[in-house]
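Fold it.
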Amino acid sequence: MKKWSFREEGKFWRKKFLWLLIGISAVIFAYTYGLIPLLDAKKKADEEIILKQRILAKYAEIMQGRKAAEESFERTLKQTGDIQKRLLPGETPQLGAANLQDIVKRLAEKNFLSLRSFRNLEPKETGVYRKISLQIEFNPINSMMNLSQFIHDLENQEKEFMISEMDLLIFNPRMPNTIQGSMVVAGFMKGDKIREKDKEK
């Protein structure tokens, strides 16, 4: 049986201690230069992913807002276009009044209404629009139906018209269908403010 000397035993424990020291050093080295950078890299990658997700969410929100704004703008343009179609054409109140008179004449002829006179009233600025008014007098008529149809056609044709005043006379109570009278028909055209904006464009 081999006996261990104190020197050999010391060598053995020194070797063991050395290997233990090397093993601990290797673990510390691997932890410091391997695992920690790996964990840091993963943390940074996670943070970048979260940041990019936030950027994408913000971008999607902006795009959604932009789409809603574009749709709103298109609706406004369409509504503006529809309103413009209902205005009297012409650059001056005289041209607007002439257009109004032509339309009234045409509708009167269509409904067999004989007009006696026309009188252009003073145009009035109403915000962004200009109100053009025309006073008409019509000869006695025998058909209330024709007058009703004329009024209906005036208020329901493509331009925005309104009857602001009406004065009807029945000369003979025994013949209530024979009516004479006058009315004020008003239409609208672009006011000075809209014209200035159009010139700026």
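The CA atoms of residues 97 and 132 lie 6 Å apart.
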